[in-house]
């Protein structure tokens, strides 16, 4: 018998899933590296760490970094990201309308992100999305992806079990976090990890954008109703 899927709680990654912020993040990391006179890195290496917490990202870019280097890089990155770098970051097309529709349909919506709390609060305010989300967790509050802590805390706060929770993200870190939390996942290929890489993590499916999510959820709901007739 086909498994019934029911996801009243939808947890979204932010960068690369809801917001097209890749250029901003890459630019800020490049500027931070230049500030400290560190070796230049190519864009592929920098793109690959988007989605991780800042400490984990720095450790991947510069293995063996001591606390001093981490603190310096983190401070420069925050300065560039929050104040100096004005590279525009906008929600992907259809994202806000999709979130409004899902919120109106009664879904619990949440964010699990590699951003820090200050950064997430800033973009929630700038995009007018703050009131659409029922919960959120950031990498400076929890263990970084792919550790499941963000999801576990969100589910506990909203009293929703893993079987009724869906993680939506654009990186393998999102997919692995979902698996580690016992949660189903849907990938989106609009972000930093390509579709084939995401499919290797065995999500339920891979969408090209968040705007496709409501139709898929509607199809799952219709399938449940059909199964319920037997």
Plain-language structure description:
The protein has 230 residues and is α/β, with parallel strands linked by helices. It contains ten helices and eight strands. It has helices at 22-35, 43-47, 54-61, 67-84, 95-104, 117-127, 149-158, 172-181, 195-199, 213-228; strands at residues 9-12, 19-20, 90-91, 108-113, 135-138, 165-169, 184-188, 206-207. Strands 5-4-1-6-7-8 form a six-stranded parallel beta sheet, with helices on both faces. A two-stranded antiparallel sheet has the order 2-3. Helix 9 (195-199) links the parallel strand 7 (184-188) and strand 8 (206-207). Helix 1 (22-35) crosses helix 4. The protein is globular and about 60 Å long.
Overall shape: globular
Low-confidence stretches: none
The CATH homologous superfamily of the largest domain = HAD superfamily/HAD-like
DSSP strand (E) fraction?
5-15%
Structural class call reads alpha/beta
Measured between the Cα atoms of the first and last residue, the distance is 11 Å
Q: Using the 3D structure, state the CATH architecture of the largest domain.
A: 3-Layer(aba) Sandwich
In the sheet with the most strands, the strands line up as 5-4-1-6-7-8
Q: Secondary-structure element order, as H and E?
A: EEHHHHEHEHEHEHEHEH
The total strand number stands at 8
Q: What does the largest sheet look like? A: 6 strands, parallel
Question: What's the alpha carbon Rg, rounded to whole Å?
Answer: 18 Å
CATH topology of the largest domain: Rossmann fold
Domains counted in the coordinates: how many? Answer: 2
Q: How many helices in DSSP terms? A: 10
């Amino acid at each position: 018998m086909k498994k019934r899927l029911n996801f009243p709680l939808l947890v979204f990654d932010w960068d690369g899933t809801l917001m097209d912020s890749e250029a901003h993040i890459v630019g800020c990391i490049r500027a931070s590296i230049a500030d400290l006179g560190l070796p230049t890195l190519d864009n592929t290496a920098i793109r690959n760490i988007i989605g991780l917490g800042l400490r984990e990202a720095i450790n991947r870019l510069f293995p063996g970094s001591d606390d001093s280097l981490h603190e310096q890089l983190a401070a420069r990155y925050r300065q560039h990201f929050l104040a100096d770098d004005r590279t525009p970051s906008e929600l992907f097309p259809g994202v806000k309308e999709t979130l409004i529709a899902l919120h109106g349909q009664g879904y619990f919506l949440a964010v699990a992100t590699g951003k820090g709390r200050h950064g997430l609060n800033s973009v929630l305010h700038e995009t007018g999305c703050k009131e659409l989300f029922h919960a959120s967790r950031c990498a400076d509050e929890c263990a970084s992806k792919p550790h499941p802590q963000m999801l576990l805390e969100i589910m506990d706060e909203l009293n929703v079990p893993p079987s009724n929770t869906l993680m939506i993200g654009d990186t393998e870190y999102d997919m692995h976090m979902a698996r580690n939390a016992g949660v189903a996942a849907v990938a989106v290929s609009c972000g930093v990890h390509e579709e084939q890489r995401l499919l290797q993590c065995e999500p339920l499916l891979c969408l090209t954008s968040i705007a496709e999510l409501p139709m898929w959820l509607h199809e799952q709901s219709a399938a449940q109703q059909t199964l319920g007739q037997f």
